[in-house]
Amino acid sequence: MRNPHPDFYAALVNARERGIVPRKLVSITGRSHTTGELVAPVSFWSENDDEDITVTSGLTGDTSTRLFFGGINLVVSPIPRVASLTIQTVTVTAGQISPAIQTVVRGSNIRQAKVEIWDALLDPASRLLVAPPELVWLGEVDGSPIETPPVGGNGSVKINTKSDAISMLTRKNPAKSSAEEQKRRQGDEWNKYAGAVKNWKPNWGQDD
């Protein structure tokens, strides 16, 4: 278990006297519809304004500054903290009219996309971050239904995610065992003649 940043921990300890403003930060990294390559993560947070925030990636461990889009009615379900090997889930809900959300769910392929979630604390007076955000969730997308609103209503996107490390223990390989799929692996031609070979009928124990 990681120890929180000292300033982050101090803000929690002093919350009764000084108060804190908790916020959630979310990044989703999908793949290109055409090439299948990873695209740049799209990030948003539960604040009204867009903000450049420095975070540590749960995927690479690198620290970088990302633009987090605000004003999207972001709601993140409670983050489960368990010691078992059961697959945990977290749901990310946001308004579907946001350009950032449309970029995520329509502009890229988010099937099994990586989802990073951080906890952030703002100072009640200055509304500035009291410490670097703490990574609290690393998962992958498990469906992203778009709810169609009634006339005059506002629709939403509900992105279901499951814990990344534990789900990999039970996940099936999504790649198909075809020649086309194999070629994507740096030109691997293992299945080049699979279609023809499956129809061969050798005469075992006999000379040709």
Task: List strands and helices in order, with pairings.
Layout: H1 6-13, H2 15-18, E1 21-31, E2 42-45, E3 51-56, E4 63-69, E5 75-76, E6 89-95, H3 99-105, E7 109-122, E8 134-141, E9 146-147, E10 156-163, H4 164-167, H5 179-183, H6 194-197
Parallel strand pairs: 2-4
Antiparallel strand pairs: 1-2, 1-7, 3-4, 5-6, 6-10, 7-8, 8-10, 9-10
Total number of strands: 10
The tally of helices reads 6
Strand content: 25-35%
Helix-strand topology string:
HHEEEEEEHEEEEHHH
Largest sheet: 10 strands, mixed
Structural class by SSE content: alpha+beta
Poorly predicted tracts of residues: none
Rg of Cα set:
23 Å
Q: Which of globular, elongated, flat, extended, rod-shaped describes the shape?
A: elongated
Question: Would you write up a description of this structure?
Answer:
The chain is an alpha+beta fold and about 210 residues long. The chain has two domains: about 5-170; about 175-200, no CATH class. About 15% of the residues lie in helices and about 35% in strands. It has helices spanning about 5-15, 15-20, 100-105, 165, 180-185, 195, and strands spanning about 20-30, 40-45, 50-55, 65-70, 75, 90-95, 110-120, 135-140, 145, 155-165. Strands 1, 2, 3, 4, 5, 6, 7, 8, 9 and 10 form a ten-stranded mixed β-sheet that branches. A hairpin with a 6-residue loop joins strand 3 (about 50-55) and strand 4. The radius of gyration is 23 Å and the shape is elongated. The termini are far apart.
